User: What shape does this take?
Amino acid sequence: MDLHQLRCFLAVADELHFGKAARRMDMLPSALGRNIRLLEESLGTRLLSRTTRSASLTPDGTALQDEARTLVDRADEIASRFRDKGRARASMLRLGVIDTAAAGLAPMLLHDFRAKHREVTIHLVEDRTIRLLPRLVSGAIDLAFVRPPSQPDRRIEFLHLFHETAVVAVPAKHDLAGRRRLTIATIADEPLIVPERRWRPHSHDLTVKLFAQAGLRPNVTQVAGEKQTIVNLVAAEIGLAIIPRWASRLAVPGVRYIPLQMKDASALNLLPLAAAWVRASRDPVRDKMLGILKSRLDRYVSEA
Assistant: This one.
């Protein structure tokens, strides 16, 4: 029995679904199941009853759940305490950001932060939310700017910042490229490029939900993983794409970015950005950055 096996068990115990637990742990379901089996073998008892669709706790699994959580929380507390001591000496902040935050929020915030705290070294890690949150819990990063998940990990504190604005990426030679504004109805028949939902659920659902609100179905003809790839596909005239406005800072020739107009402006509030850190952890450097972020948030929002 080790801590990783206990974390795997708790993920399944919380979700009661191996697929959801595997996504939460950023693991393949087969690897998650292997860790559960090793834990059961080491304890000599069955902890979970499995079906093809779900899982349930056995009596021994129920008995283990609270004790396992206490052990894992205690281990996290010890690790956090020693990290705090080391970080007080190191004066470094490890910051995780999703791609649009790397293009928009991070440069502004780091400029303001560096003006006051030149002694702090910033280690910037750019990745997807699904990969940044496990790194946050493990202590590999100290603060992250992410899309908040629909089922947040109770070990993580989230601070909602704002919703990013959406724009339509259009090939420069397209008939719509000269428009000052676009509506969903205007692009209803156009081929669309969307992100892979497994990796970017918010960005994928942005297109689907905006069309649903308009009572229409998107004509999705291409799925891609990264926003840089999506914008390059737009430049190649494969289709149009609805993306966060900060992604328009990607310098790709042959693409125009046109604001998306909705009757109800709140309908565009589908791209939340949040700051995230480990709940109840102490980190003076992180708190200094959060202080600057909160004090200047209105200016950053105006750029989103």
In short: The longest helix spans residues 59-90. The mean pLDDT is 89.
